[in-house]
Amino acid sequence: MGTQVFEFDGAEGQRLAGRLETPSGPPSGHAVFAHCFSCSKSSRAAVYVSRALAAEGIGVLRFDFTGLEQSQGDFADSTFSGSVADVVAAAKALRKVGRAPRLLIGHSLGGAAVLAAAGQLKGVEQVVTLASPFEPREIEVLLGDAAAQIETRGEALVHLGGQSFLIRRQFLEDLRSQSQAARINALARPLLVMHASDDPIVPMASAMAIFDTAVQPKSFVSLGDRGHLLERREDAAYVAGVIAAWAGKGPEAERAQDLLEGGTGPSALVKAPSAFGYAQTLARLEAAIAEHGLTVFARIDHAAAARAAGLALAPTLVLLIGSPRVGTPLMAQTPDLAIELPLRLLVRSENGGGLAEIVFEDPVRAGARCRTPGEADPTLARMAALLRELAEAAGKA
User: Fold this and answer.
1) If you count Cβ atoms within 10 Å of the first and of the last residue's Cβ in the chain, which end, N or C, has fewer?
2) What class has domain 269-395?
3) 147: Cβ contacts below 8 Å, ≥ 6 apart
């Protein structure tokens, strides 16, 4: 594998800086990676995911949007529409050198940009969003109090990720003018939506809105507890593996397909440490379950069963919970899901006196074992978000 400098002209003639990650052998295809808002081609997500995809055999161009890092232009004059134009320019630049991209990948606001750009690029066959908002204007929340200053004064200095950016009113006006829902509905390309249930910046509801608005073929893959920024190499490797499997490319596609189908990958189980002991954690969890109007179908006390058999086991209890109104339609559509439902929450403590831990399986990955690969039901993603919310309510001080 290798990294090559790749510069090209943007829509307004400004020089944009990029890096082309190349596989060690002949590439099975090429992609454009659009980074997150106020990030750059050097962000960990951009670098790690691009290089992990190169390891899967896919060449990837990651580049700086106008006015960021090494690209020319003034970021203060930039807009979301300008970022969309940058994505289009990047794809066309690759095509000019005989590496026409068939895949667009966007992280956070970059995902919104690739969704908007895809309709202008006939050669693009597939689109992937990572932790992306449904509507571009959703990122206004990141501006905090500065948004009001921009409205009244025309511009304001915004502090994001340890850096300061001058943002003008035209940026907000452009965000609000986007018809993103119509673009997503008319995408007419396979779409892969990837989102973490614990994303603190862009809520899971945004991913669900993208998925619900898009038409088939579309796929949803939960990123579990990987958060928003995707800054760990192992997370990037997982993301790249799933993308390669979904896109049907790369020498590791078979291994990655196992991840996509809910195989033995490391993210099947989500473990949430509690700030409380076993008894208090269990009581708080049962209270949270009741507050959500869910049914506890069974309580399996493994420690009690062990004692009855004359054996010893640290406190270990499983709660089977759910709602027939939610689970029944899923099982009617996919009968094999009955083996995965109701949802299960494990509460345990290694020694009974220390802090407890709550464990559950990601419903998206569990459900994927019972259906056609990639056709994840958004209800399962909502279940994943619910389980995480319950675990947080029970274990967070």
Assistant:
1) C
2) alpha beta
3) 140, 156, 172
